């Protein structure tokens, strides 16, 4: 089938437009990086009915800081919720910008089913850094971990500003109604220095 010259010209313009936008977005992403400042965690399970032990923190490396979270459960946890909130703090009197505030069914999250795109992407990335199961339940007396996690902004939509980022994530038991572990990440997006920027 032969294409009309005007139609061919139209599709060529569309292709060039998309290509130029893709290039600009790629360049924007490559110019910024997310750096971890601190990572801590807490638990509402004061009586230790669910959680046996937990540990959170950041690596000692200042140049390439990563964060980790480890926990051991006393009992199997099947039905649970996962909560995540991502906030970009702003100077007063401006209110903080809430990028994401979502609670989702934990078992579906482990299986990476029926999630909002950003959460589904995050679960896929997390597989490289954790031993979380791909289906419920979380088993007791097993050290579950997320280790050496450092987010590459190239996997996300283009970022073109320097900003602090606060992330809160929680796992909550549906049966007991308490958050057995909550992590608090403080980070910031900054422009990559000329020395670190790829040629």
TrEMBL record:
InterPro entries, per the entry: DUF1091 (IPR010512)
| UniProt keyword terms in alphabetical order | Signal
| Domain of life, source organism | Eukaryota
Q: Where is the signal peptide?
A: 1-28
Matching entries from PANTHER family are given as: DAEDALUS ON 3-RELATED (PTHR20898:SF0), DAEDALUS ON 3-RELATED-RELATED (PTHR20898)
Spell out the protein name for this chain. Uncharacterized protein
Organism of provenance? Drosophila erecta (Fruit fly)
Q: Upper lineage ranks?
A: Eukaryota, Metazoa, Ecdysozoa, Arthropoda, Hexapoda
- Gene name, Swiss-Prot/TrEMBL: Dere\GG21007
């Amino acid at each position: 089938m032969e294409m009309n010259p005007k139609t061919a010209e139209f599709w060529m313009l569309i292709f060039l437009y998309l290509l130029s936008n893709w290039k600009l977005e790629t360049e924007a992403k490559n110019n910024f990086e997310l750096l971890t400042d601190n990572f801590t965690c807490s638990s509402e399970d004061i009586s230790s009915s669910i959680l046996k032990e937990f540990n959170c923190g950041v690596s000692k490396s200042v140049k390439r800081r990563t964060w980790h979270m480890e926990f051991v459960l006393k009992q199997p946890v099947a039905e649970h919720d996962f909560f995540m909130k991502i906030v970009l703090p702003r100077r007063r009197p401006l209110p903080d910008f809430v990028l994401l505030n979502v609670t989702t069914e934990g078992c579906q999250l482990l299986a990476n089913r029926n999630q909002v795109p950003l959460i589904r992407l995050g679960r896929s990335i997390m597989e490289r850094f954790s031993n979380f199961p791909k289906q419920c339940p979380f088993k007791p007396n097993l050290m579950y971990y997320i280790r050496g996690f450092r987010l590459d902004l190239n996997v996300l939509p283009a970022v073109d500003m320097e900003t602090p980022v606060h992330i809160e994530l929680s796992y909550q038991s549906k049966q007991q109604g308490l958050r057995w572990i909550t992590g608090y990440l403080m980070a910031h997006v900054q422009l990559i220095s000329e020395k670190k920027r790829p040629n």
